[in-house]
Amino acid sequence: MKRAAHRKQQGAALVIGLVLLTILTLLAITGMNTSTTELIMAGNEQFRQNAFQAAETGRENALRALPLVNTNGTPETVPVTPVVAGSTDTYTTTSTWLAEDQDIAGYKAGAFVGNHYVITSTGRSARNALAEHEQGAFVLNGGGGNNDPGNPGAPLVGADPL
Predict the structure, then answer these.
(1) For residue 22, what pLDDT is reported?
(2) CA dist., res. 69 & res. 95, Å (int)
(3) Which end of the chain is more exposed for a tag (fewer CB within 10 A), N or C?
(4) What digits encode the pLDDT tens for the residues 27-43?
């Protein structure tokens, strides 16, 4: 009787071992796929941040050049510019004059002229990462000479969010 029971059990350990090995292999493959996906997601986030920083660089450069933008309402676009020479991260900016304001609070009428602008900056990075920023700005002209509010002079630049 013992021999009959012993013969029925032959090979059972092999089958159980193979089943466990298959389960462990599936778990390992799933873990590798998950880590690969997370690595790609981290890379995408990094490229998105690079695009964000490129758009910020374009916005800052456009603010510096704002007093040179024409005041006829025609948008002025800075073409695709690399953030750093040889970089894949680029930006494009568009600065548009919106309106003029001669009634500046706290000063006599006509002492200062304020120009309202809007700047749109688009940053691009690898894997089609894209970030677009829009900011309003106000350039105050006047105060030349001894900063007398009655005399026109060099522009004073200040940014205000839209």
Answers:
(1) 97
(2) 7
(3) N
(4) 999 999 999 999 999 99
Report the distance separating Cα 92 and Cα 120, nearest Å.
8
**Rounded to whole angstroms, what are the CA distances from 42 to 38, 47, 49, 162?**
6, 9, 11, 32
Residue entry with tokens 């894209």: 130
Longest dimension (CA), the chain: 118
